[in-house]
Amino acid sequence: MGLTYGGAGVDVKGIKKSQNRIGRIMARTHGAGTEHGFGHYAGMVDGGGGMLIATHTDGVGTKVMIAGRMKKYDTVGIDCIAMNVNDVVCVGARPVSFVDYIAASKNDGDILSDIARGLARGAVKASVPIVGGETAIMPGLFSGRGFAFDLAGTVVGLVPRKKMILGSSIKQGDAIIGAHSTGLHSNGYSLARKALGRLPLNTKMNRGTLGDALLAPTEIYSAPVLEAASKCKVHGLAHITGGSFTKLPRLKDAGFEIDALPEPPEVMRLIKDRGVSEKEMYRTFNMGVGFCVVAPESEQGRIISIFKRHRIRSGRIGRIIRDKGVFVNSKRIA
To answer: Domains (ranges, CATH) in the chain?
Structure first.
């Protein structure tokens, strides 16, 4: 048996059970103004005047450990912004504000400034203001004597109730358009680190080093996605993160056939070659596609053109089929 996410310490099924328990507890707080709670990419409440307020919280995960090993801290902030705005746009919401949370083992002004610079760069690209945050210095919480940290944030978005996108309109025959990723983005790093082991971060690759590939910032898709949603008929939006394509059914209990993926980034081929099965790869990593748009076939050309104008490659990677589940090259993965 090859390397798995569970073997790397991330029990996906167990985590889902914990999330469901937490969700049931939190559901007690929902009132008449709660439009949508747990289970999608963002929670939504009534904002008045026909508007919904969407909220999402996410972090960078153990990618911060790669930043620490590389002593390069000025890009993980971009990841933090991306992981949040890419999720909140999945319900059709436009990001309007962001707050960050940095927990660190000690105060290092230079490193904290580097992290902040990354956050600012990401926020500018996503056209969302950072309006506050928290920097918590907690010696004793992190092991080791060096600088260690965690990074997360929360984004707030707005969407007219009539333009909310949850996936209910998805139907058989729809096209699945996939926007290319820049690499691992910010998910699957526990398995990636397990597979790569002690392979030096300065290992040469076709473009730069292994460390460069692992730290490549997550692509920010918010601008082209919102443009596509405003100019085209869009039935569903999915940010491909933890769990990869297995999360597509959260849009709708339908059949998702993925059969035309682009060539995965070199770092993913390296991880696979070091003992991760093909099925586990497609259940854990984005495999070269960071965002999916589900739309009528007649709209795919316009949507691909929109991504191209924003300098993001994309293409038709599959379609909605009758048989429920997620299939990659005819093999069921979920």
So the answer is: 33-161 (3.30.1330.10), 175-332 (3.90.650.10)
